[in-house]
Amino acid sequence: MSEIVIIDSGQLALSLRLPELGMPEILSFGSEPVEPDPLFEIERSSRVNGMDIAVPSNVLLPAGGMGFFGWPAIAGHRGGRDFVAQFGGWTVLRDGNQTVLKGVDSVARLGIAITLTAHDSGLISMATELSNLGDADYQLDRCMAATFLAPAGDVQVMSFTGIWGREFQTRRELLGNGTWIQENRRGRTSHDRFPMLFIESETQIFGVTLGFSGNHQMVIDRIDDGRRLVHLGELFEPGEMILAPGESYESPTAYAGADSEDFHAFVREELTTWPGGTMSPRPVTLNTWEGNYFDHQMDSLKAQATAAAELGIERFVLDDGWFGKRDNDTTSLGDWDIDARKYPEGLKPLVDHVTGLGMQFGIWFEPEMVNPVSELYKAHPDWALTIEGRPILESRTQLVLDLTRPEVSDYLFGKIDAVLSNHAVSYIKWDMNRDLTHAAGRDGKAKTSAQTRAVYALMDRIRAAHPDVEIESCASGGGRIDYGALKRTHRVWTSDCTDALERLEIQRGASVFVPPEILGSHISASPNHQTGRRHTLAFRALVAIAYHLGVELNPLELTDAERDELKVYIETYKRLRDLFHAPGASFRMEPLDGRYVWGAASGEKIVVIVAQGPQMVGEQPAPLRLPDEVTQFGGQWRIKTVLPAEPQFIRISEGQKALLSGAVTFALSSAGLAGLPLPMLTPESALLLELEPIKGGKTHG
């Protein structure tokens, strides 16, 4: 009987059969593993007018040329030869929850190793290594990291698109008979093609994501029996991946999970590594960008820090403008020396002032970029990624430094290390503000893949030298949010757009794969700097409060009333953040008639945030039916706290007033079956409901 290999995470199970020749056959992919059975030895009949011997199509990483006529997950050649791959001689190596399948193609002289891991969080991950065992170069055109199997029949794919300032917009489409494909060629994760999908059918739902920050491919290919193979992997530029004899290509890691909770658990438990080993409560952050831009004045910055501390803010981040002669965004990137005009005594007086107030100090870098108007570019124009004879294409008046060159990486490490070593810095905001175009080295060959890995190496080097420093991944906002970046960072800047109305959809989409404590969300000024909209402080605060809360304004410009109100929301965040960020506590609901609902729940406290985006179409809002993950706690509850104190309701009944005042006690099960009859909110307003159980009531959890 054939060898059966089971990868079982407890939530997902991948069952494989290893053939003598050919790729591992996927017997099942779902909630339950298979048991060895004679059924799996029955070969399929060949197709009408097809090959005389049936070639399985439901396999991991199918290669073309030997009877598989679908989309090949592996492709390459050796000078035009060895363009067909057929692996066999499979061996299985197990080490704890990790399984490595190794095969060889003795004709094409290639080796392959597929690493499959069952994670405690419920995820299954897969990565591929392909080796050149021949004596001549092998050009690898494609090598996917992973393949997962989706059912036959109607299947819907949920993907994410967007633009700068409007990321993580969800899109759903029904798959047809052809091949669905998403390719990203921007050289960074991008704002419009995130490497994250959810696959939904009548019988199964699962998500997949690729842990990589560069170019990628995600392909859903319909095979001959109606089922679909879901492939994830890196996208190579022409001729980018040439393996010399003895060299290997190691793919990024791809992940599959049954639901958002499992993806969140993986990020919390395994992917993110925190200084000291555990996440500290996420500090309220003041970022100086929108409050100051490039206008850095020491006295003002110190006063802002003092005002921030009085508000209860715990981390002060100095954004762009502190180095070189950086008075605007056209100059000085690459010149990472402190601007003596703005800081005649260096940064230390500001850092000491901030830390003396009991706050952490953070600082902004954009290490990968250089302005043509800079001392660095004047000295080393050859350090930029360009192609000889082609126009130098600037974006935001920036070029990209070739981090694959050791002298470039060493220079950047030295500059960043000097700032971190000489100042009490706890946090780096690592920005990256342009896509990659004609990214080539001095030899004219593509370097997009190598550049991505060089960025990772620089991040790893900085983290090793400064293990107590946290890093935020920012790339024009949400342009580099993926599990490759999150492996090395502790926070992402979800979007450069801080408009609370836009953030409703941005944060809802990002929350599918990223837990709330990782997503930076800031209370900014009104009118908003990106959209010009005016929103109440309550709306701005409540849209941000469940995530990693920050402030993006000059606190000196607040009125006394605004300052007092902001203090209330910061104090509320601090009181509730342990719940908001607790494993398995957060929930979110699908928007209904412009009403967004999310929050967190435990057996001791439930927090529900309700935000009305656009004007409702209905004349009355439907009662708010709390989801099962909230009502599971059971017992009798009441509303203890409502924020703001006077929500913006269009109309409210006496009974609704009693409910919101805490005078009505209700069974939590009723809140799931019938729902909470809340009043209608005005457009672009929100409220927070804090529920508490009635002591002595029956609860379970």
Write down how many β-strands occur, each being a DSSP E stretch of 2 or more residues.
37
Classify the beta-strand content into a percent band: 25-35%
What is the SS-derived class?
Answer: alpha+beta
Total number of helices: 14
Radius of gyration: 27 Å
Distance between the termini: 45 Å
The chain-level mean pLDDT equals: 96
Helical residue percent? 10-25%
Shape: globular
Instruction: Name the poorly predicted regions.
Output: none
Q: Profile the largest sheet.
A: 10 strands, antiparallel
Give a quick set of tags describing it.
701 residues; eight-stranded parallel β-barrel; globular
Concise description?
The protein has 701 residues and is of the alpha+beta class. It is built from 14 helices and 37 strands.
Helix-strand layout with pairing:
Blueprint: E1 3-8, E2 13-18, E3 25-30, E4 74-77, E5 88-95, E6 98-105, E7 110-118, E8 124-132, E9 138-150, E10 155-163, E11 166-174, E12 180-184, E13 196-201, E14 205-211, E15 216-222, E16 228-234, E17 242-243, E18 248-250, E19 253-257, H1 260-271, E20 285-287, H2 289-292, H3 298-311, E21 315-318, H4 348-356, E22 360-365, E23 369-370, H5 375-379, E24 399-400, H6 406-422, E25 427-430, H7 448-465, E26 470-473, H8 483-486, E27 491-493, H9 500-510, E28 519-524, H10 537-544, E29 548-552, H11 560-580, E30 586-588, E31 595-601, E32 606-612, H12 628-631, E33 636-643, E34 649-651, H13 654-661, E35 666-667, H14 668-673, E36 680-681, E37 685-693
Parallel strand pairs: 20-21, 20-29, 21-22, 22-25, 25-26, 26-27, 27-28, 28-29
Antiparallel strand pairs: 1-2, 2-3, 4-9, 5-6, 6-7, 7-8, 8-18, 8-19, 9-16, 9-17, 10-11, 10-13, 12-15, 13-14, 14-19, 15-16, 23-24, 30-31, 31-32, 32-37, 33-35, 33-37, 34-36
Helix pairs in contact: 6-7, 9-10, 10-11
